Amino acid sequence: MEVVIEGFSVPSGTLGDDSAEAVVVTVTLNMEKDWYTYTNVTGELGKPTRLKATAADGARLAVFYPEGTDKPDPFEPDTMTKAYKSGTRLFALVPRGTVEPFPVNMRLDLLLCHPTKCVPARLKLTYKGTDTPASLPDASAQPWWDTFSSLARAHQAAAVKPPSAAATGEMQAAVIEWKFEPTYLQPGLEVRSLISALLMGLLAGLILNVMPCVLPVVSLKLTSLLGAADGKHKSDQYHAFREHNVFFVLGVLTFFLILAVVLGATGKAWGALFQYRWLVLTLAGIMAALGASLFGLFHLPVIDLKFGANQTTPRRQAFFTGMLTTLLATPCSGPFLGGVLGWALIQGPLVIATVFISIGVGMSSPYLLLIFNPKLARFLPKSGPWIEFVEKGIGFFLLGTAFYLVSIAYGTWTLRFLAPLWVVLTGGWLWSRTSATGASTRWTVRLATLALLAASVMWTTPAPLQENPWEDFDPVTLNQALGKDTLFLDFTADWCPTCKVLEATVMTDENVTRWKNEHAIRFIKVDMTERDAEAEALLLALGSRSIPTAALFTKSDPGKPLVLRDLYTVKQVENILNTP
Length: 580
Known about the structure:
Blueprint: E1 2-10, E2 22-30, E3 36-38, E4 50-54, E5 62-64, E6 69-73, E7 76-84, E8 88-94, E9 104-114, E10 117-127, H1 145-160, E11 183-184, H2 194-207, H3 215-228, H4 234-266, H5 277-293, H6 314-329, H7 337-344, H8 349-372, H9 387-410, H10 415-433, H11 439-460, E12 471-472, H12 475-481, E13 486-492, H13 497-505, H14 509-519, E14 521-527, H15 533-541, E15 549-553, E16 562-565, H16 570-578
């Protein structure tokens, strides 16, 4: 499939607005013969086509989809479906008055289908734009103008009608001014004062140590601790052990201060730094380099995790290891943290910094214990031949983390080859290391490697075509549905491991389908993988600055949604759904 991106000027007055010109960006889907894709309408079969477009300032742009054509679905001949054929154009409107419009970043999700097969696709697209919209071709002179103008006028009418909120500007992609009085699943755990924020921040930071994000952190700390205690007399060992932990904790606290400044100044959600692809890819490169260094491919000057390495700057290594491990932990939001952040990030700079330091102290508390009692180093295992397997195991784990970060940056489809590649690399090393061992050990490792390779291929193979119980978030559609339908919103992101745990255990497609049928509830997924000003505004209106977050809007009182923060269970969701 070939995608063609073009820009056209929308003359003043053509859409009922006499101000300066707007720009419409068209995305044309050119497909091979007999190929098609589904429209944006969620049906019984297929995957709806979705185009998400954001301006350079993060504002979400209105996207318009043509109706499509009726055709029998090849997989269910008795079912008629709406499809887009080759040459279909999708439209994204860059409205008048956008602060910083270009470049426009887009993400296109669709299911490319042929009468015999379907292939999911996710494309990252960019329209660079121009400083002089008037120099672009006139949209009103194009053969598709009538289709676009009718869609845009219908959207404009919908954007200004909702009674409970108003758009902030004409044709501004329906930026809704959300106003709610949220209640919380566990109101007794909500923060009401600085004292409670500090106490809960300490506890939330401690719990953060056992969240899914910190597995790379554990591996980094293990290498650092064993390295600090390796090959030294007891007195020197205790000194090195204490010194290492002091500078590691300083690194953790420094990064929390940086986070306080960045999040407090920008108003971003916890973990939102991972919305920037360049940062995710940089971290992936760092993780890959750290992993490769453990195999002796090169020596890293600042953070060298090899056991027994003669560090010339151990303090600097400990400090930057602390900063790096904290950065890796930020996509996770554990118990209590959502309430702490929701309260703290609307306070003044001094309060924000104080609360973030308390979270950092809580996360650092195990290492503070080691500072005050360095004799705990005696419980660390002594060096031996086994240390090579620990070192290489950590190296492969860091390499797997790098692959996971790449999948965040470029989409989960990359895991289709990255996951088997990781198994091949890990299994190949074990295969070679056990070649001189007994036959039983050798063949156990080899068969286990082949079984794991087969499992990785099966795990990353796209699931069979099935109904998607989720609706995508659209602010205008959501605002119109408030008070008319019961709604359940789930805020999630590809970079949020805690969200993925919930999706695999609580918010599964099977559970959501069952709840929809039992309670007549619409389930809407708010994807915050990339920057989305509308989603961030809605999250803030719900009193949250972190994900995962979920909210239940009832028909009887939509202005007072029930908010679930951080972690929750199937039973908790069912209890609130069963509440009259």
